[in-house]
Please model this.
Amino acid sequence: MTAIITSPETVQETGPAAPAPGRPWRGLLRQPLGLLSAGYLLLLVVVAAAGTLLTPRDPEADDLAHTLSGPSGAHWLGTDRLGRDVFSRLMVGSRPTLLGVAEAVLVFVVLGVALGMVAGFAGGRTDRLIARLGDLVLAVPGIIALLMVLAVFPDNNAAAMIAFGLISSPSLLRVVRAVTMAVRNELYVKAARLSGLSTPAILRRHILPRLAGPVIVQVSLFAASAVLAETALSFLGLATPETQGPSWGNMVGEAASVISVDPWLLVPTGGMLVVTVLALGLLGDTVHDLTVGRARGSAVRPVRRPRPAVRTAVAVAAADVAAAVADGAPTEQGAAAPLLSVRGLTIAFPSPEGEVTVVRGVGFDVARGECVGIVGESGCGKTVTARSLVGLLPGGGRVVAGSVAFDGRDLADPAGREVARLRGSRIGLISQEPMSGLDPSFRVGSQLAEVVRRHHRLTRRQSRARALELLALVELPDPASVARSHPHELSGGMAQRVSIALALAGEPDLLIADEPTTALDVTVQAEILNLLRSLRVRTGMAVVLVTHDWGVLADLCERAVVMYAGEVVEQAPVSDLYHAPRHPYTLALLAANPHLAAVGQELPAIPGTVPPPSAWPAGCHFQPRCGYATEECGAGAIPLVTVAGGHQARCIHVDRLEAAR
Amino acid sequence: MVREAIRWLLSSLVLLFVVTVLTFVLVAMAPGDAAKAILNARSGGYTPQQYQEMRRMLGLDQSLPVQYWHWLDHLLHGSMGTDLFNGQSVTQALGSRIGPSLSVIVATLVVSGLVGVALGIVSALRGGVLGRLVDVVSLGGLAIPNFWLALVLVELFAVRLAAFPATGYTPFGTDPVQWLRGLVLPVLTLSAGAVAFIAKQTRDAMSDVLSQEFVTMLRARGLSTRSVVLKHALRNAAIPVVTLLGLLLVSLLGGTVVVEDIFAIPGLGQQAMTASASHDLPMIEGVAFLFTVVVVVTNLVVDVSYRLLNPKVRAS
Amino acid sequence: MVRSLTTTRRQALIAVATAAVLGLAACSSSAKPPTQSGTGSGSAGGRVGGTLTVVTDVSPQTLDPAKAVQNDAWFTELAYEPLIVRHSDGTLVPGLAASWSYTGTGNTTFVLHLRSGVKFSDGSALTAQTVVDDLKYVVASKGQMAPFLAGDTFTATDPLTVTITAGAPNPNFPQLLTQDYVVGGMVSKAGLAAPTGLGTSTAGAGPYMLDAGQSVTGDHYTYVPNPNYYDAKSVSWHKVVIRVVSDVQSVLSTVQTGQADVAQGDPQTQVAAKQAGLTVASSPLLWSGVVLADRDGKLAKPLGDVRVRQALNYGTDRTSIVNALFKGLGEPTNQMTVPDGYGYDAQLNSTYPYDVNKAKELLTAAGYGSGFQLKIVTPDYQQLNILAQALKQQWQKIGVDLQITDDADANKYAAAAFGGAFPAFMTSFGAIPVWMEGPSLFMPTAAFNPLHTADANLTKLYNQEAVSSGAAQAALDQQIEGYLVHQAWFVPVVTTGLPYYARNTVSGISTSATEPLLDLYEVQPAG
Model:
């Protein structure tokens, strides 16, 4: 009877974020377990429908001379107390059981989907009313309800199962409501409404298809509970007595009553239940994975090893790349060894078609105290490059080639132990979205103190004091009150200051700032930039700044690396880049920069978009969008060439660019 | 806060009212009544006069609203009436049975909560084959019928190994060690299924949280994996898990019938079964009332823990 | 098994239906002293002080001896000393009554001489008036046994003498007033004054009394010695705990694992108990089979013909059924009593050998050669529903199509069977003195005769039996049994016992053909 619970899980996860791959069942075919489960269930339905047509023996024919015989050639699963064939009885017994489950599921689905859709679509008072009703039903103790229903309709399987469906339906209702609400608010549905499509039509055309996945998940889980509930009821002697023919419930009950004489009988009867519930559960799981998608590779999950075949392919690609970048190392070397030295960095991500390289052969140096910018459009690999420096690639991404040397240590080793030791203490990271970078559940002070304590031997009291100092350091006006706040109580600017304080807690030598101002409004942007500048001066730390904003770059950085479609296309001191760009992409970027455009002049946008990694052209990645492109550009890998001291560009037309200026 | 409390109180009262009224109506609709059950039990048969007399004695001859009013009136004076069969006060009977039930339920929640959350975390962290394995194993726990597992456990651990008692319940106050020993097998039986739900829910919630930006940032700040997973991610994944634990408690409340039967634990599930089989209205009402109170209190606890876990809910 | 969760408890509700009961040996009213010799002396002293834990799947509805049913006897007999004690060997020995006898002939006046100086657990003294009040309370409570005392006059003819003047002849007062029928247990004056309290507490003069503080209704009942018990040296235990474990498999594992010393078992676990090395005691107690209630053919015309009823008996392969379903638990039977039970006649068991041809001949002769449909209702206990299914298969061979209604809810079954809604019903019936059996089983007003078949011959025999005694009574008992068998009012199939299991920690686990119920107070520490 524990079965009288259906998981509320999907309420949360199939919520607004649920993507909708069109036909989950097509994907089902690729999942062996799911396929097997579906096949088994289908077979079961056929067997139940066929009744005695398929049974090897008459399920009612007794044989008092051979009772409880155990499995044999004549009786594959043995015989019961009256010598009847267990196998045949199990086949026939599937009918009342499945019928009961079907009744429960029908009520469950009809009520859950109908009310859920109405609640989710209508919203407002209707929604609240239905939700309240659902809560009410959910709060009624299920067992009491079933006992009462069975008291009113004794031995009535159908009544019990319908009641079971009814009292369970609110869990489906919640899921359906959540999905409906999410879909309703999507643009195309709004558009459909504006264009005058009737509500039923919208429900049918746009919302029902999206419900299929989550509903199937819920239904299969519920059906599993219903199988157990149906059998538990028969087993308790409350439904389907044996004299009305076999059902799984009364067969299990019978088996249990002879357990001390013949334990075998429990195996086929209980086994049937277990297998069926498992099949339903697995089917639900599979559909769930296909529709909702299991979170693929989380931040904490160690990188999975690729399969050998893929590895070879990647290795080949890497070798290819290595050749292309062999000469691409930055040439300008300071007298002292650089703090950070990146060489031939190549990063790949898993995809259904195997690993895809998204960053290829990136190399640059950062000297102590220096600020280096990484610029480029979205999708060029800037953030991935920055994250790889701290060993925190999302979603199963990994460094497949190249090296990241930090103060003499190699950070790109696959185990990531070296980099883990340096994170927070010598390398800090601040991110694009200050708010989502903070744990919403803990107070700012406590989060900060925890990081402080992690990097310094301090008592709790000392670390709390240090936390306040840090908040003061990032120029927050009232550190004590900020420390007491939860992240959601902060403004974006305050949150970014807190993020910076968190990154500074370990007093790092290098700060990686990934678009630190993008999400902020303009005045706050300036404040944060000022803060970063003054912090650089005060702490003497080096900064790697990821940005697509030339203004920010000019404000903070000495040198910049320009990336396009996973490659470094140019790097140079910032002023050289501004005044003498040697790559058509840099030139185009500069031209599109609003800060530089002359008043009254139309802003030239770069035509086209950055190609995804899977569509990188051979040769120069920029050539399809490049005004200078010639046939040679697509002929082969383009090397990074040094055009001046400390200035490199990946273009065979550097001279034409020079000439054009 | 005060408004919330009032709202909770009001909705609880509505729920209690609805459940007790429905129970009354359903019991009245059920074929047969307590008078018949008592007469059958005592003498195996009865004349119409005897039946009418018994009905009058039990107050069943009054109209339903009047009966309900009497019950409500008694309730307001702190009495839930007496068992129609042996005259025991319902309050007392339920009082003696709530301890065993709660022991089993709470222990099951603790055990399945700990194991389920642990499995869920491992599955969320490791994914792949191990995750699948956790899925299948926990589904298996779900699929094995309670009674079957219970019988196997008894045969193995009580009869063969004599490690735990086969049946019975010892109150904590009498002997804490025996209390614990007596709970082991029933709790194992019930946990097998519960673990599956909790592990699944935990895995989904954890996967979701672990893929969020703040987890990456926590690691970027150098926090240990242990702190990131067990402190920060788990706390953020806790709400759906707590919701599930609340639902589990409610379903265990009566769902322990089979286990109480096999392990002879004098709990509420058994009382519910017996009472409804014998149409013992005061007892049925008592059980329904108590169950609903537990449900209402559980919902309150879940609500309060939402507030503790999620500062945003607290604020609004 | 878990089905027994409902059935055993519901079984208790209709104990009268199974009328599980009692021993035979009618009338030895010889005033033997209690034969509890083993207890007082020597080694027993060392063991006294232990706790006896017994386990049963029966949960008593009430502890009030006037309302309790026979299945609850364990719960009442420890606390309520009966007027007359039935010893395990079947003899009747003095309890609260030192001696008793009928006065005159015709079984209408019965005199009890009470033991002097007896006190109840509440300290009050036993007087003839208490007994009179108690018996009146029994009649007024309309309990299971009330009909056998209704119409009688109870008089305290002196402070320690009670005279019962029967409204109609009653040859079974001595049996009726033992612990086996519960009502023999006497309640104190204070107890009678506040009868509602009797549901969950005790007020008797027995060796023990309920300790309500250590008991949980429906789960376990703890009895402690009654300091006022008149025969203190026969109290063997400092504490007796009766545990209720509703699942019969769990009853077995409870005693198997040493959590209990003694168990009231169940045929379902009897074989396993023996295999587990427990002492198993069982004596025949019940017969199970079909009541062909519609002997006048009101609902099912064919049953009105005796040949049809006989054909059903011939068409039943009892041996196969017993071998398949009751192996080691029971014996095939043709009669409505158990071996050595009241009216038992071994020769009767050859009345209906399995003979399909004979059955078909009889049916053809009666005009039902092409068969007929018969509706039957069955409860779930005592494997009766399985038995019904076996009969359905066997009777198909003689053209009878049995339509089975299976009521797991024993109350519903009772309503259907005893309400006269079915021409036939499955039942298990306890062996019981014939005079008491009549109003339960076969007389026109009997519950098991819901369509009120009246048979002048039978009534005549019954009335003769009521006023008879001794050998004449035994002969009449056999005549009545034989008449019922030949008239084929029933299709009895098997006789079974009620098994008891015990560990080697206790002795005194004995039952006999004349006392198939285990008397708890005879259980003693082993060695």
About this structure: Chain B has two domains: 21-76, 97-315. The first helix of chain B runs from residue 2 to 29. The interface with chain C takes residues 31-32, 36-37, 40-45, 50, 82-83, 85-88, 93, 96-97, 147, 151, 154-155, 158-159, 162, 165-169, 257-258, 261-264, 266, 270-271, 273-274, 277-278 of chain B (CB under 8 Å).
